[in-house]
Amino acid sequence: MNLILPLATDDIIEPVASSGQLMAATGLGIAVIVVLITWAKLHPFLSLTFGGLTVGIVAGVPLADGIASFTKGFGETTAGVGTLIALGAIFGKLLADSGGADQIVDTIIGRASTRALPWAMAGVGAIIGLPMFFEIGLVLLMPVIYLVARRAQLSLIAVGIPALAGLSAMHGLVPPHPGPLTAINYLDADLGITLAFGVAIAIPTVVLAGPVFAKVADRWVGDVFVPEGRFGDSDDADAGAGIADHRPSFALTLFSVLLPVVLMMARALAEIIINDESNAVQKVLDALGTPIVALLIAVIVGMFTLGRASGMSRDQISKSVESSLPGIAGIVLIVAAGGGFKTSLVDTGVGTLVARWVADSGVSVLLLAWFVAVLIRLATGSATVATVTAAGLLTPLTAGLSQPEVSLMVLAIGSGSVFFSHVNDAGFWLVKEYFGMSVTQTLKSWSLMETLLSVTGLVFVLALGLVV
């Protein structure tokens, strides 16, 4: 799939102003977001809000209409994605507090040889990354990375980069993370197909950007070992003891983590294989594989397989669920404001202009989607902002595309959203401080790993685009 198909006439929103004025409105809107986030240090929620209003004003849209467009997008995005983010956060907190995350880590790491440790750490990062946000997964994994590096007498680069590659790939490519979920919602992609493609692309991408790249980075970055005073002096310390009396079994934990993924994939397979909406089996799988239902089932099941199985009381489970929600308020607001910004762009008709330009230029839609996300990622430092902004801007380009092609467009945006993390990204400073590295060392390891992950993801997206 190289070229966009002609726009469906029913989906066209005619431009409200000249092409020059609309491109200026888009550029200024994005510039406002970038300046407010990077220079004024304003929260992305407020920055996206001001950016959305700027688009409408510069495009000549009456202020009342511009506000209406923004609030409409804000509300629709909150309704479509906010609940899923909340359910994912609840499940991630249950996984951590029950000791299930530690059980996964210890089981996999305990069976790996020194040579296989980087590969095992990549697997741990990917599994932990499925239900957890990147920052949460990083905080959870760092004590484990310290412990493994110390016991195996390996550098933090050799052990940590593969784990971070697993975490980052899941964050950018695989639902139920906010970025991919929002792009799926905006572009009206099929979640099951996107999930299947995302996992298929993430595996080889993690291999190349994780264990393979770590060997190279370990040589040129220099010795990076566990900083003194980090993680204490005890070898029996572990990552997040949680509040449970004992850990659930590895099999039960893995079942809990993979349950929503299996349900959503089963739904997608039923639509492909059975392809009969009147079929009873497909009806059941359609219901169970709906994202909100799949995650809700995972949360309810997790209360028993993770919570009760680890000895947590009902009060402790309730406390775990309650404590998971305040931390995601900012993420929900950012994503929702991104939805408002998206609608502000769409309602001016600028997306139609972009779609027509692409149709006439012969530029690959997948390459364009990746490039737009890269530009916004470099400017704002936020993978989530890059994803929601790029997806919103490119929404009209999906008209006439098949569901697999739209899913690949989501993944192209996701790949671009993790490109070259640098000094305007909070994740950059988290990694730098946890690893005890200089800015230069962080750029040569973490930043280049993110870039390799992004480019490799794009290559596999383009390869799949040749056959779907």
Description:
The protein is mostly helical. It has one domain (9-465). The protein has 20 helices and no strands. The protein has helices at 19-38, 44-58, 63-97, 100-110, 117-129, 134-152, 156-173, 178-187, 191-221, 250-273, 280-288, 291-307, 314-324, 329-348, 350-361, 365-380, 383-393, 403-416, 426-435, 439-465. Helix 3 packs across helix 8, helix 6 runs antiparallel to helix 7 and helix 9 runs parallel beside helix 18. The longest helix has 35 residues, at 63-97. The relative contact order is 0.17.
Q: How would you summarize what this structure contains?
A:
The protein is built from 20 helices and no strands. It has 468 residues and is mostly helical. The protein is globular, with a radius of gyration of 22 Å.
Binned strand content: under 5%
What gyration radius follows from the Cα positions, in whole Å? 22 Å
Bulk shape: globular
Q: Tell me how many strands there are.
A: 0
Secondary-structure content class: mainly alpha
Sheet having the most strands? none
Helix content: over 70%
Distance between the termini: 7 Å
- Average pLDDT rating: 84
Along the chain, the helix and strand elements come as HHHHHHHHHHHHHHHHHHHH
Summed up, the helix count is 20
Give the number of domains: 1
Low-pLDDT parts are: 1-11, 229-241
